[in-house]
């Protein structure tokens, strides 16, 4: 109501119309009907039109962004020391989601997955074994080697920084459905710009 | 001649404009809000597919309800099968994280559900590939990661009181 009054007063000033109004409630009767209607229409149309257009554009670009991040790829910032030296703390990388949908994730890929203990956070590790692979579950310097097989539909993830990484050696293989995307390109820092290196722990891959 | 060319161009422009508005909005809606799916199999009888192979139930999957990964015991959920990532399975939530489940048919008699996991079972015990039997014999964990893909199904029937496994909180 207050907003309406302010608009009317500024319109009156603009149009140089003198009025003697007793209360704002009688405005419709006192003012000439035609003038009031046109003012009402243009005001409302301008404000409402702008609002609807803004909302429409927001929805449209939001949906396009969702489709792009979900089905194509996006930029991700990684934090944590578990993938050093390949990916340092607060590096910015480019992740693509096409391989996940076409089931093209291979051994040696760095993937982003949903954390098995907390569905709202993501983890970034390297795929060591796919389903059916034989995995060394303890360090190779131990005398008694223990192997385990990766079950169907699961993958075995490990970070490159084996001393400081919570990965499948701790919580076991994770289902393929938790993988969100594959990281293949580093953007920041610029000194390390380019495709990502192979694993420094080559001995972990054993599919004999 | 010029007029017909101009018509084609205008049409093409309008098509692109409509395409880039309609497809992302529709895809986002189906991914984030709700979608429709057909239920196959007998593992949720009699709640879903009571007629067996003659008639498949059609259900509404409500994605919006699980956007914060909050489900209750007794909800029917749809999730990506941990054994086959191309398949989605529909089961009922029996226990949430932290609960202890007295299982039927699983190798451990009592299982505590770890953090971030839930225990699901089909209503039709014995015909259900669920938390009691996930994976091959060598499988070490049979508790499913429900946040692989989880939709809450609008329930058309009341939750069954006689669950297979008992839950201790």
Automatic annotation (TrEMBL), chain A:
<feature type="domain" description="Peptidase S26">
    <location>
        <begin position="144"/>
        <end position="188"/>
    </location>
</feature>
<comment type="function">
    <text>Catalyzes the removal of transit peptides required for the targeting of proteins from the mitochondrial matrix, across the inner membrane, into the inter-membrane space. Known to process the nuclear encoded protein DIABLO.</text>
</comment>
<keyword id="KW-0496">Mitochondrion</keyword>
<comment type="subunit">
    <text>Heterodimer of 2 subunits, IMMPL1 and IMMPL2.</text>
</comment>
<dbReference type="InterPro" id="IPR052064">
    <property type="entry name" value="Mito_IMP1_subunit"/>
</dbReference>
<dbReference type="InterPro" id="IPR000223">
    <property type="entry name" value="Pept_S26A_signal_pept_1"/>
</dbReference>
<keyword id="KW-0472">Membrane</keyword>
<dbReference type="Pfam" id="PF10502">
    <property type="entry name" value="Peptidase_S26"/>
</dbReference>
<feature type="domain" description="Peptidase S26">
    <location>
        <begin position="59"/>
        <end position="136"/>
    </location>
</feature>
<dbReference type="InterPro" id="IPR019533">
    <property type="entry name" value="Peptidase_S26"/>
</dbReference>
<keyword id="KW-0645">Protease</keyword>
<dbReference type="InterPro" id="IPR036286">
    <property type="entry name" value="LexA/Signal_pep-like_sf"/>
</dbReference>
<comment type="similarity">
    <text>Belongs to the peptidase S26 family. IMP1 subfamily.</text>
</comment>
<keyword id="KW-0999">Mitochondrion inner membrane</keyword>
<keyword id="KW-0378">Hydrolase</keyword>
<protein>
    <recommendedName>
        <fullName>Mitochondrial inner membrane protease subunit</fullName>
        <ecNumber>3.4.21.-</ecNumber>
    </recommendedName>
</protein>
UniProtKB/TrEMBL annotation, chain B:
<keyword id="KW-0378">Hydrolase</keyword>
<feature type="domain" description="Peptidase S26">
    <location>
        <begin position="15"/>
        <end position="104"/>
    </location>
</feature>
<comment type="subunit">
    <text>Heterodimer of 2 subunits, IMMPL1 and IMMPL2.</text>
</comment>
<dbReference type="InterPro" id="IPR019533">
    <property type="entry name" value="Peptidase_S26"/>
</dbReference>
<dbReference type="Pfam" id="PF10502">
    <property type="entry name" value="Peptidase_S26"/>
</dbReference>
<protein>
    <recommendedName>
        <fullName>Mitochondrial inner membrane protease subunit</fullName>
        <ecNumber>3.4.21.-</ecNumber>
    </recommendedName>
</protein>
<keyword id="KW-0812">Transmembrane</keyword>
<keyword id="KW-0472">Membrane</keyword>
<dbReference type="InterPro" id="IPR000223">
    <property type="entry name" value="Pept_S26A_signal_pept_1"/>
</dbReference>
<comment type="function">
    <text>Catalyzes the removal of transit peptides required for the targeting of proteins from the mitochondrial matrix, across the inner membrane, into the inter-membrane space. Known to process the nuclear encoded protein DIABLO.</text>
</comment>
<comment type="similarity">
    <text>Belongs to the peptidase S26 family. IMP2 subfamily.</text>
</comment>
<dbReference type="InterPro" id="IPR037730">
    <property type="entry name" value="IMP2"/>
</dbReference>
<keyword id="KW-0999">Mitochondrion inner membrane</keyword>
<keyword id="KW-0645">Protease</keyword>
<keyword id="KW-0496">Mitochondrion</keyword>
<keyword id="KW-1133">Transmembrane helix</keyword>
<dbReference type="InterPro" id="IPR036286">
    <property type="entry name" value="LexA/Signal_pep-like_sf"/>
</dbReference>
<dbReference type="InterPro" id="IPR019758">
    <property type="entry name" value="Pept_S26A_signal_pept_1_CS"/>
</dbReference>
